[in-house]
Amino acid sequence: MAEDKIRESLLKESKASKREKHGKILSYSAIILIVVVVVSIFLFVATRGIATFTVNKGSIIDFFTKSQWNPGATDKGGHPLIGALPMIVGSFAVTVLSAIVATPFAIAAAIYMVEISPRRGYKILQPVIELLVGIPSVVYGFVGLSVVVPFIRNHFGGTGFGILAGTLVLFVMILPTATSMSVDALRAVPRYYREASLALGATRWQTIYKVVLRAAVPGIMTAVIFGMSRAFGEALAVQMVIGNATLLPQNLVSPASTLTSILTMGMGNSVMGSVSNNALWSLALLLLLMSLLFNILVHRISKKGALH
Amino acid sequence: MKHNKFWLLLLAGLFFLTGCKQQGAAITAVGSSALQPLVEAAGERYSKDHAGEFVNVQGGGSGTGLSQIQSGAVDIGNSDLYAEEKSGIDAKKLVDHRVAVVGVTPIVNKDIPIKNLTMVQLRGIFSGRYTNWRQLGGPDVPIVIVNRASGSGTRVTFERWVMAKTPTKSAQEQDSTGMVRQIVSSTPGAISYVAFPYVDKTVKTISVDGVAPTDANVQTNKWVIWSYEHMYTKGPAKGLAKRFVDYVLSDTVQQEIVKKLGYIAVNEMKVERDLAGHVRERAGQS
């Protein structure tokens, strides 16, 4: 009798193993769901975006080189006017410029928080940065519209709407991302690097400049690229201050546009399946590919530059 | 086993929540943001008068409204445009209900003292022929054009009646009327166009060919920049959708809500204008 019981308990699934199975099924199905969602979004955007060139006979060369954007109308050859160059230039301009402006601030703040005064940095700067992250983008846009735009109009000329206004707004928006990731990068530099440097007689500044920052370069690059990818994808705040004119920007204060601003403006006014709508999906596809590129860059850099 | 029960409960809860719908009949109206306040106000009033019947109203733009009603995803599609004017819409399947009229007027920044422009001058401004207010007898201030997003109802109406096929100059675009008004009020030399209900003290309207942008002038078609607000149904309206459209056309809504929100009642129009732009006197009007 006793043997049977033991035999039975050995052959039967135990409670623990059952639970493990449930857990496995649950997490696998969650993963599958996520993958399916991502893949289907990508496929959806891709099929719609490519339709502009296959179904509507848009020229892919025009898309990247021409500057006339009016997908509802066609040129003499019957191809829709889908010159997206102004948006592409605008998107890259605000992204790169805001990253250039934000990087020194991010690095300086990170050095202060990690190397110079960790305690005060933690007490004051940390909450400030967290607060900046929490501010919704519409608020940034509104402040940009009512403060930054008139300021630029009065001091730099033009209408105030343009790449400069977009850059300033995005600078504040990507600063927290760039700063907190730079902080992580500096913290990841091993303590013995600093100790060795100081032991060799280097001053604090020499240690920071020649050792810590050098060792943290890949991490800081990652931080900057993350900031850029946020700037590239930001729609609402930029749309409010950039002017949304599909013109090649003449200077930093002439109205311009970004991929996202034209995308959000046009969506409600076009009909699914029409040329205008497909052209917007092409912009979306370009955005998706760009953010994919940013992600690949981040992976590359962090793999290459990992500390050994 | 306890855990299994927990998951089951959670699942059941989810089903319950998703299955939980408003009691009674409900329809959804989607589309034009210009028409949205009217439909919302009418919908609220309707639900108050008719217990158990609800009208869900969403914005999204005329394009969204027309494509959603075409695909049958909603019960009513709101639009500032005739369905025929929108590419990608098969207008034959849709039934038009013109529920209100709205005028569109040019607005300028208050610093511009000009009170009247001819239609040709107005066209010249938006096509880029004039670039400074001095050329039109105003101060030496560059003209800043602010457009609505292409395809938006207000812009289509404005371009149809003002531009007359002349291409508009590429310029700033904004996707909401509120934003346009805010920019025009704060930017020196700015000009744009908004629907009558959005005109307020922060901006200045302009008369065209000596005709002031007033409701009375729209009713007689003296002021030509106006459009109908449409509620489209797929096929003839049925059930609650029909009752609601009839309600919107009733005197209760037309006389009270339509007027209060700054639109013009359809039954007070002295003229009627068809898709091609032909104007004739409305039957039954003296």
Characterization of this structure:
The complex is a heterodimer of chains A (308) and B (286). Chain A has 308 residues and is mainly alpha-helical. In chain A, 76% of the residues lie in helices and 3% in strands. Chain A folds into 2 domains: 20-82; 85-307, Orthogonal Bundle (MetI-like fold), CATH 1.10.3720. A two-stranded antiparallel ribbon of chain A has the order 1-2. In chain A, a hairpin with a 5-residue loop joins strand 1 and strand 2. Chain B has helices at residues 2-19, 36-49, 62-71, 119-127, 153-163, 177-186, 215-219, 239-249, 251-260; strands at 25-31, 53-60, 76-79, 94-108, 116-117, 144-148, 172-174, 190-195, 204-205, 207-208, 226-234, 264-265, 271-273, 279-281. In chain B, the strands form 3 sheets. In chain B, strands 1, 2, 3, 4, 6, 7, 8, 9, 11 and 12 form a 10-stranded mixed β-sheet that branches. In chain B, strands 5-10 form a two-stranded parallel ribbon. In chain B, strands 13-14 form a two-stranded antiparallel ribbon. The interface between A and B is medium-sized, with 35 and 34 residues.
Task: Compose a concise summary of this entry.
Chain A has 13 helices and two strands, in the order αααββαααααααααα. Chain A has helices at residues 2-11, 15-54, 60-65, 85-116, 118-134, 137-156, 163-187, 191-199, 204-215, 217-233, 236-242, 259-267, 275-304; strands at residues 69-74, 80-82.
By CATH reckoning, the class of the largest domain in chain A would read Mainly Alpha
The CATH architecture designation of the largest domain in chain A is Orthogonal Bundle
Distance between the termini of chain A: 61 Å
- Report the portion of residues of chain B in β strands: 15-25%
Name of the CATH class of the largest domain in chain B: Alpha Beta
Give helix % range of chain A.
over 70%
What integer is the average pLDDT of chain B? 86
Q: How many helices of chain A does DSSP assign?
A: 13
CATH architecture descriptor text of the largest domain in chain B:
3-Layer(aba) Sandwich
- Uncertain regions spanning at least 5 consecutive residues of chain A: none
The most extensive contact between chains is:
A-B, 35 and 34 residues
CATH topology of the largest domain in chain B: D-Maltodextrin-Binding Protein, domain 2
Report the radius of gyration of chain A as a whole number of Å: 26 Å
The helix content of chain B is 25-40%
Widest sheet: strand ordering of chain A: 1-2
Helix/strand structural class of chain A: mainly alpha
Net shape of chain A: flat
User: What is the CATH third-level topology name of the largest domain in chain A?
Assistant: MetI-like fold
Instruction: Report mean pLDDT of chain A, rounded to a whole number.
Output: 89
H/E order of the elements of chain B?
A: HEHEHEEEHEHEHEEEHEHHEEE
Radius of gyration of chain B from CA coordinates: 22 Å
Domain ABC transmembrane type-1 (chain A): 88-298
Subcellular location (chain A): Cell membrane
Organism (chain A): Schleiferilactobacillus perolens DSM 12744
Protein name (chain A): Phosphate transport system permease protein
